[in-house]
Design a protein that fits this description.
The chain has helices at residues 12-23, 37-47, 63-71, 92-101, 113-124, 132-145, 152-159, 163-173, 178-185, 189-203, 208-217, and strands at 3-8, 28-34, 51-55, 82-87, 105-108. The longest helix is centred in the C-terminal third of the chain and has 15 residues, at 189-203. It is an alpha/beta fold. It contains eleven helices and five strands; from the N terminus they run βαβαβαβαβααααααα. 53% of the residues lie in helices and 12% in strands. Helix 2 packs parallel to helix 3 (63-71) and helix 9 crosses helix 10. Strands 2-1-3-4-5 form a five-stranded parallel β-sheet, with helices on both faces. The N and C termini lie far apart (40 Å).
């Protein structure tokens, strides 16, 4: 099955380079590109891509607002693509907000070409792209800077998890991969995937990215902990 992708970035050379790289893959079809968030949203609504590669900082409308519009569309708009944010370390705040808005993850713009290809495939498959090392730095930093009170509803949702599911959620928030969680808990990797699926369903979360945000905001994980 071919993954349909659009690229939204205000730098023409970035769009061209990413498009050439992705289009060379047999399972990826680059169906369009846009230079700002406004055109990116319009293009996505018209072409219905599976994945949108979205730059964070752009004129007209930045990637954060564009992601919000794609992931929380108005009544009558059914299509919701997966959104993969393209970012650099100096825009961490935007990354945090993008994850809260429902983006499936983020990729550093200077990542190796193989990482870009892998990222598109991972996100298209319904997984979230959260590199462990980056997750620990970004999410913890901004959870610390902007703590939110734990509401009764949040606590109730957290209490609905089994002890094992809670443990898995905590390890996700600490940036561990499925394989690392399996090794830590002495479980089969498929069992870990099953637990993650149940956690997402019980907490009414879209994907792994939102699970990380929930874990910090619920108080299950405290910034700075290891």
């Amino acid at each position: 099955m071919t993954t349909r992708v659009i690229i939204v970035d205000d730098q023409a050379m970035v769009r061209a380079g990413f498009a050439a790289l992705l289009a060379a893959q047999a399972d990826i079809d680059v169906v369009g590109d846009a230079a700002d968030g406004v055109r990116g949203v319009e293009l996505s609504r018209r072409l219905h891509p599976d994945v949108v590669l979205m730059d964070v900082r752009m004129p007209e409308m930045d990637g954060l607002e564009a992601a919000r519009r794609l992931l929380d569309p108005p009544v009558g708009v059914v299509h919701r693509p997966k959104v993969l944010m393209l970012t650099t370390f100096d825009v961490d705040d935007y990354v945090y907000e993008a994850l809260r808005a429902g983006a499936s993850g983020f990729l550093l713009k200077d990542a190796p070409p193989a990482d870009l290809i892998s990222a598109v495939r991972v996100v298209a498959a319904g997984e979230a792209l959260l590199a462990p090392s980056v997750t620990r730095r970004l999410i913890a930093d901004f959870a610390r800077q902007r703590p939110e009170p734990r509401t009764d509803r949040t606590a109730l949702r957290l209490n609905g998890l089994t002890p094992r599911e809670t443990e898995v959620l905590e390890l996700i928030a600490r940036g561990l991969s499925n394989q690392e969680i399996a090794e830590r808990l002495v479980l089969a990797e498929q069992t870990v995937k099953t637990h993650i699926g149940r956690v997402l369903a019980k907490l009414e979360l879209r994907d792994r990215a939102q699970a990380v945000i929930f874990a910090y905001e619920s108080g299950l994980v405290s910034p700075g902990e290891r």
